[in-house]
Amino acid sequence: MSHAAADRHAWTEPKVEDLGGGVHRIPLPLPLEGLKAVNVYAITDPGGIDLIDAGIALVPARERLTAALRQLGYELGDIRNFFVTHIHIDHYSLAVELRKTFRTVVSLGDEERANLIATREMLNGSKGRFFGLADPYRLGAKELADEFAAQDGRPPAIVDWEDPDHWVTDGTDLDLRTRTLRAVHTPGHTRGHLVYHDAAAKILFAGDHVLPHITPSIGFEAAGSRMALRDYLGSLARTLALPDARLLPAHGPVTGSTHERVNELLAHHDLRLAETHQAVLAGNATPYEVARAIKWTRRHRLFRDLDLFSRVLAVNETAAHLEVLAIRGQLTRETGTDGADVYQAVPLAN
Ligand SMILES: [Zn+2]
Q1: CA-to-CA distance for 66 and 69, rounded, in angstroms?
Q2: Could you tell me which of 94, 143, 196, 218 has the fewest CB atoms within 10 Å of its CB?
Q3: How far away, in angstroms, is 350 Cα from ligand 1 center?
Q4: β-strands 166-168, 105-109: how paired?
Q5: Three-state secondary structure along 117-173?
Q6: In sequence order, which residues have a C-beta less than 8 Å from that of residue 70 and are 6 or more positions away?
């Protein structure tokens, strides 16, 4: 591994990072391809701990959390609250599991209700099982759906998708012992994503809304929405309207400025929108066609060279960009004879 690559993964090492003011970053292991760890943040005081996010409900994550808390002088039973940023398995599931033993209070954004309902429907078979690819036909991606169906679709952990104790609404102030966190609704990565802002300490617990190394996936959720990218761009603007703060992300190292990274993400999506528009001008019409026509990842890889999961994410991302171009009046959308969304460029008036 090169030095740059080693540095890039340094944040995943099983250490506890002291961020000052009783706040500690604890990376927990993940069994996911390309995503080796998730940060949970412990906010400590003499009476106990509140945690931002929880990790995945697997033994290695639970053991790592136990060891990290012990290093800080606490036990799992000292956790009072899990303030979870969003419904994804690597953030929510360990909270639900630990609650069974320790009666810890679990809080989640109230706009995640639809995702919990849809996830349960999916698991009991009353809805299609193409998680994150709700309607492959609409995306023009039947091919991908066939490949997906042939896969062993087991999730990385067995999870009881139970409700949280509290549904947190936008703008709620959470009074902890040492500070007040404001929950800010930032839909996009998921529809109910929350960030937790500590304006006094100038820190932002950003979940997966703003990540320092990667661009968060958009709308990969059980109750997906066509408007995921429009919502996400709105949430980035909302984040810029908050006072700047240190970025405490769920994946990646802590960095000095949230605003700096938000501006990079906005520039990235501007570029992607332009590339997507170009691909439609070149004659690609469905989300699947357009996804195959553009390059992916920082390394500009071809669509066909991506693994299946990444191709699913890529088609979703493409569909989300096409919808934003349609909202902006640069494209039209119609339904093709096979049920697929078909986009066409709107000629520039002159
Ligand atoms: Zn995540």
Answers
A1: 5
A2: 143
A3: 45
A4: parallel
A5: HHHHHHHCCCCCCCCCCCCCCCCCCHHHHHHHHCCCCCCCCCCCCCCCCEEECCCCE
A6: none
SS3 at position 88: coil
Q: What's the rounded Cα separation, in Å, for the pair 11 and 225?
A: 32
Per DSSP, the residues of 192-218 read: T-EEEEETTTTEEEEETTS-SSSPPPS
Q: Which region holds residue 285: left if phi is over 0, alpha if psi is between -120 and 50, else beta?
A: alpha
Ligand 1 centre and the CA of 282: distance in Å? 35
pLDDT digits (tens, 9 = 90+) for 252-303: 999 999 999 999 999 999 999 999 999 999 999 999 999 999 999 888 999 9
Ligand 1 centroid from CA 201, angstroms:
24
Please give the distance, rounded to the nearest whole angstrom, from the Cα atom of residue 26 to the centre of ligand 1. Answer: 14
What is the whole-number distance in angstroms between the Cα of residue 86 and the centre of ligand 1? Answer: 8
pLDDT in tens, 222-258: 888 889 999 999 999 999 999 999 999 999 999 999 9
Handedness of CA 152, 95, 17, 297 (dihedral sign): positive
With contact defined as beta carbons under 8 Å apart, do 32 and 90 qualify? yes
Provide the token pair at 66.
Answer: 């136990």
pTM of the model: 0.93
Query: Which residues are bridge partners to 27 per DSSP?
Result: 39
**CA 88 to ligand 1 centroid distance, Å:** 6
Residue 290 exposed, middle or buried by CB count within 10 Å (0-12, 13-18, 19+): buried
d(CA 123, ligand 1 centre) in Å: 21
Distance 346 CA to ligand 1 centre (A): 37
In the reported structure, the alpha carbon of residue 279 is separated from the centroid of ligand 1 by a whole-number distance in angstroms of 30
If you measure from the C-alpha of residue 280 to the centroid of ligand 1, how many angstroms do you get, rounded to a whole number?
31
Q: How far is residue 217's CA from residue 232's CA, in Å, rounded to a whole number?
A: 10
Question: 278 CA distance to ligand 1 centroid (A)?
Answer: 31
